[in-house]
Amino acid sequence: xxxxxTPTTDTAKAANTQVAAAPPPAQPQQPPPQRPRPLxxxxxxxxxxxxxxxxxxxxxxxxxxxxxxxxxxxxxxxNATLKQIQDxxxxxxxxxxxxxxxPFHPRARPxxxxxxxxxxxxxxxxxxxxxxxxxxxxxDASLETFAKEVGLDMKKWKKALTDPKIAxxxxxxxxxxxxxxxxxxxxxxVNGRFFSGAHPIEVFRAVVDEELAKAQxxxxxxxxxxxxxxxxxxxxxxxxxxx
Length: 243
Known about the structure:
The chain is an alpha+beta fold. It has nine helices and five strands, in the order H-E-E-H-E-H-H-H-H-H-E-E-H-H.
């Protein structure tokens, strides 16, 4: 007989057998990080267009006002995106450009004045594109070269550079940006709603689509397309966007 303290063969085998460790629980797969969406204010702000350079139809359903700085690299990046957005939306989108030369960009203000002098001859956007394409060479001689390259009447352009109303227009745009809380560049107001930064094109499309859908609904309710932006101004506020 087996002594009481002696394990049986089966018990001994069990004692000498190591139990395999349970595998660790599977970790849930993490979704890929999402691009942050811009701060798109739910508030509609009054952004007068005045005589600022404009591309697009007056009755476009969506009006995008940009505050830009010709020495800002983010503005140059956004400019390429805006061109594609304009191609995508055609007559449904109007782009209005206002000047916001930042104080730490010493050549931004002279470039803004030069661009508005070109605007006097109806060639703001041609000159605007030259500036962004040559952003690192915005000295006086280069500004003059660009004016020649876009076909400006040089005598009229040089005279406009010293016209007080051009400098006043830059001051007016800067004051408007400040009153709206648009401290940086590029800053945008899409049918009065604020967001800022050189975002990927899909972000711009999402913002434009949102405002376009609302404008199309107003048209269905009987509002004329040419009245959409006037309605934005009528119901907008002048306070600064929330930070």
